[in-house]
């Protein structure tokens, strides 16, 4: 049994190109280890403590908004470096995961510090198990999605049940076995000492992103578009992940979801990663967080979606190149990308046209027709107060295509 069969397709696997658009593609404190000041003085900026940075981020984001927006107290995306993701990324790096292209190709000094600091643990059971599982399909967003169902490092206590669809073919047992080894790795390497010693570094990255994106961290536009919200939103910065990232979600018993955009750097300068400009983050917000609104609706209407599966064959090669290997995933991507285009048009005609051409160039054949349908939704919110009310109307696009 391979994990690709057990886990299936991911929820959102993306990369960000030079234009800011997304595409898919994969010891201890006692030692005194810390970010060393290299010869080129790339860390010459005096870094404040991470707690101070966190407080300043809140003030910075709020002060960038007009008073009316502040008064509405719209939900905002948290910007953070997460120890669970850094623990996972460390094991992935030691396992040779660079072969997949899912580790950054940029010259990030932090990546080499991880490699050096944990070099004695390259044959740790957690590392060897991940190498094995990743070759069986536990790759792309699946490891990220899995680890976010646990809380605390090194404890990694389960906070929500793993997705039910992973259970059918033994995926739960495989993942729980890996997490068991990951706990041991975190304890034996004193991983949190390493993480805490890099707090100022993480704080610098978080601060730079908060300053860059400004009001893009607000979820007001997104929630207004869909007519409802999610439990929480987070941009997780992953300094050694690939150029782009993933859009997982963790669904609670109430049905509400914590949604994430977990993203790697799009460049690096003097060893310091950067995560893109405001336009890139706007795209990531609208694209990645939209998966948590769209994917559950596609699953709810799975039988109807499957009736149009013949449309996938002409698209299969182009979609598979982007890690979209089945029709349901292809539908999700079409709908999310069409919505992202419509939201780009809200920024201006040029932005919308640019987004439309980008998606069509990547092989998303039905984006323009879906956009025409979405214009109807946008014009009649009295009838369609929530996107859930309108979603089935989109099937007419695929029905018409079947008839041609």
3D structure, described in words:
Helix 12 (278-288) crosses helix 16 and helix 16 packs antiparallel against helix 17 (349-361). Residues 14-48 and 62-71 have low confidence and may be disordered. The chain has a domain at 291-403. The protein has helices spanning 3-7, 50-63, 67-72, 83-94, 109-117, 125-134, 142-147, 171-188, 191-197, 199-213, 220-226, 278-288, 291-300, 302-306, 316-320, 327-345, 349-361, 367-379, 387-390, 395-403; strands spanning 13-16, 22-23, 78-80, 150-151, 157-158, 232-237, 245-246, 249-251, 257-263, 267-269, 272-274. Helices cover 49% and strands 9% of the residues. The two termini are 40 Å apart. With 404 residues, it is α+β, with helices and mostly antiparallel strands.
Short description, anyone?
The protein has 404 residues and is of the alpha+beta class. 49% of the residues lie in helices and 9% in strands.
């Amino acid at each position: 049994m391979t994990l690709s069969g057990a886990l299936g397709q991911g929820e959102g696997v993306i990369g960000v190109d030079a234009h800011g658009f997304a595409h898919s593609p994969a010891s201890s404190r006692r030692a005194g280890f810390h970010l060393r000041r290299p010869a080129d003085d790339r860390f010459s900026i005096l870094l404040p403590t991470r707690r101070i940075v966190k407080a300043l981020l809140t003030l910075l984001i709020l002060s960038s908004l007009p008073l009316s927006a502040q008064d509405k107290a719209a939900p905002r995306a948290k910007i953070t470096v997460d120890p669970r993701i850094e623990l996972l990324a460390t094991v992935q790096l030691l396992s040779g995961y660079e072969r997949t292209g899912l580790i950054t190709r940029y010259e990030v000094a932090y990546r080499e510090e991880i490699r050096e600091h944990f070099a004695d643990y390259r044959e740790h059971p957690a590392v060897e198990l991940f190498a094995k599982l990743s070759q069986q399909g536990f790759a792309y967003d699946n490891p990220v999605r899995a680890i976010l169902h646990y809380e605390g490092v090194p404890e990694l206590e389960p906070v929500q049940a793993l997705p039910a669809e992973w259970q059918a073919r033994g995926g739960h047992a495989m993942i729980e076995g890996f997490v068991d080894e990951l706990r041991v790795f975190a304890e034996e390497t004193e991983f949190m000492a390493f993480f805490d010693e890099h707090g100022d570094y993480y704080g610098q990255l978080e601060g730079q992103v908060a300053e860059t994106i400004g009001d893009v961290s607000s979820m007001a536009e997104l929630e207004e578009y869909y007519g409802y919200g999610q439990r929480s939103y987070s941009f997780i910065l992953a300094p050694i992940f690939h150029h782009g990232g993933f859009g997982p979600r963790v669904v609670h018993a109430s049905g509400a979801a914590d949604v994430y955009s977990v993203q790697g750097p799009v460049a690096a300068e003097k060893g310091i990663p950067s995560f893109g400009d405001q336009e890139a983050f706007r795209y990531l917000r609208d694209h990645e967080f939209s998966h948590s609104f769209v994917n559950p609706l596609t699953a709810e209407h799975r039988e109807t979606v499957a009736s149009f599966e013949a449309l996938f064959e002409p698209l299969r090669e182009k979609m598979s190149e982007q890690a979209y290997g089945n029709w349901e995933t292809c539908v999700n991507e079409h709908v999310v990308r069409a919505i992202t285009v419509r939201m780009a048009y809200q920024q201006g005609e040029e932005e919308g046209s640019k987004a439309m051409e980008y998606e069509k160039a990547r092989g998303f054949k039905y984006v323009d027709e879906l956009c025409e349908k979405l214009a109807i939704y946008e014009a009649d919110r009295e009838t369609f107060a929530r996107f859930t009310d309108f979603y089935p109307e989109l099937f007419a696009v695929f029905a018409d295509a079947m008839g041609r």
